[in-house]
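Show me a record, fold above all:
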Amino acid sequence: MARRKKSKTQDKSVWALLALGLGVVGALAAYVKFTPADRVPEPMRRPAATSSKPAPAATQVWVFSPHAEGVEIGFDRTKMPVPTGVDAKVYAVNEFLSKSKIAPEGARLVSAQVIEGEAQLHFNRAFDTTYGSTDESALIQGLQRTFGQFPDIQALRFYVEDTPMSTTGNIDLSEPVPVLR
């Protein structure tokens, strides 16, 4: 049998077809590699309730302690280191509650979730009590000052566990309470 000779144009077209195929495979590989699989189109995104990355941990926070200044309430503040692995906001509030001796002994802030500048404060059941007007004022002002040190927070909303609080006595908590800076 006689062998057929390939023409130079056939050789060139085979190489061109091979190069084109490799180019398509390379483009698909790059697309798969560099396109995130979890990307959600902007119109379909929900507002971020919590970020997937934790906020950078504060290494120190101001802890406030109320004291009487005549008929007014004053606040001393102390810079305290935040223990490793502890949320700075929760730590600052629980230290305030402990130092102020206003709330019952077991009252604690369980979590503070920041959504669009509003801190949703989830306290345990022990926090849910009625306070006298002076104690209530010192308690709320202390919480406002405590959260005033965090620039991403403009207002506070109070919850006992997952139930919204309406008051601690005389102060209306059904609407967000602005922080004090």
Remarks:
- Residues 48-52 have pLDDT under 50 and may be disordered.
